[in-house]
């Protein structure tokens, strides 16, 4: 039976060179799988992944680097389109905020080299409130506020949801359709591909991640929101009051 990808009205339509920016190996399949699989199937699209650390929190960075290449291959991103940053300035640590200007410069360099027109990353909550995740959002926000992004490059954020919604699997579909304008949904066959990608991360595939891959909405649906400069400026004003 031919696999059919379900792509909803409101998807990102004008995109050719697409960059996913993540913090650690396994973020790509734990959070961004539906978007990645759908966009790699888009005619004429080139999908890239920029991972900002090797995931060396438990000193397994070398292993996790190779696992990431395997996972991306399963999801449809060739190794040549994957870049992994290994910098002491960007430690894999849930309690560390990365310097937004350092991260912003790394992202901007990639955008300029590969003529990226679409950037997809975490929102300010980072799905799990991991500080490395949220740091990536604030780096992209910095590029927006400083007007450093090329005019033809549009940034999007993966929407975080409550813990209840996060773990109700496909029961979150009605709310996702109601509340979000950009959404990527994959059928059961593609969910199995995403789970296979996660299994490529053998060093990380422990019981609670196995459970996550069974129950998380992020395995079958991604909802995205364009990162809007005006909204960022208004939020900044509120914080400074």
UniProtKB/TrEMBL annotation:
- Give, as one word, the top-level EC class: hydrolase
What Gene Ontology molecular-function terms does this entry list?
N-acetylglucosaminylphosphatidylinositol deacetylase activity
- Its Enzyme Commission number(s) read 3.5.1.89
Q: Name one GO cellular component term.
A: endoplasmic reticulum
Q: Which family does it belong to?
A: Belongs to the PIGL family.
Its protein name is N-acetylglucosaminylphosphatidylinositol deacetylase
């Amino acid at each position: 039976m031919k696999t059919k990808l379900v792509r909803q009205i409101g998807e990102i339509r004008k995109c050719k060179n697409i960059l996913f920016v993540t913090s650690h190996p396994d973020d790509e399949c734990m959070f961004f799988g539906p978007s990645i699989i759908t966009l790699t199937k888009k005619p004429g699209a080139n999908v890239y992944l920029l991972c900002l650390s090797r995931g060396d929190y438990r000193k397994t960075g070398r292993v996790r680097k190779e696992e990431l290449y395997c996972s991306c291959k399963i999801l449809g991103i060739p190794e040549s389109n994957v870049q992994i940053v290994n910098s002491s300035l960007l430690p894999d640590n849930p309690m560390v905020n990365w310097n937004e200007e350092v991260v912003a410069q790394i992202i901007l360099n990639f955008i300029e080299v590969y003529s990226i027109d679409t950037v997809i990353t975490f929102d300010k909550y980072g799905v799990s409130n991991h500080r490395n995740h949220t740091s990536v959002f604030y780096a992209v926000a910095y590029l927006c506020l400083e007007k450093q992004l090329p005019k033809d490059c549009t940034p999007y954020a993966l929407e975080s949801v409550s813990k209840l919604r996060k773990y109700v699997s496909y029961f979150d579909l009605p709310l996702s359709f109601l509340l979000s304008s950009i959404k990527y949904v994959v059928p059961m066959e593609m969910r199995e591909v995403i789970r296979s990608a996660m299994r490529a991360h053998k060093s990380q595939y422990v019981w609670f991640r196995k459970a996550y891959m069974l129950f998380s909405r992020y395995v079958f649906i991604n909802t995205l929101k364009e990162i809007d400069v005006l909204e960022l400026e208004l939020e900044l004003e509120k914080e400074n009051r």
